[in-house]
Design a protein that fits this description.
mainly alpha, c-terminal domain of poly(a) binding protein, 5 helices, rod-shaped
Length: 115
Amino acid sequence: MSRVKGGVMANKRRSNMRSRTKGYRHGRSTKKRQMHEAIMRAGKYAFNDRREKKNVFRQLWIVRLNAAVRENGHKSYSTFINKMKKQGVALDRKTLAEIAATNPEMFARIAAKVK
C-alpha cells in the first residue's frame, strides 16, 4: 500500500484555524492547541450570548417602560402591564418601549386608555 502524507490537509486545517483566530493575542493566534481552545471557547460564548442578548433587551424595555409609565400617572410597570392584559391591549414590551421613547404623546394616550 502506498504511503499518504498528511501535510497538505494539516496545513489547510491549521490555516483555517489561524484565520479564525486572527487578532487574538499571544499563543492563541499562533499555536495549534491554544488556537483550537480559543475557537471552542469563543463559539461557546457566542452561542450563550445570543440567548443572553434577548434577556438584556427585555430588561432594557422594562426599565424604559417603567420610567414612561410613572411619568403618566401609573403606580408601576407591573400594575400597568396587568391592567393592559385585563383590558386586552395587545402590545408587546418592545413596541411599547419604542413608542414611549420616540412618541411620548401617543404613549400618554395608551396609558390613559389603560388607566
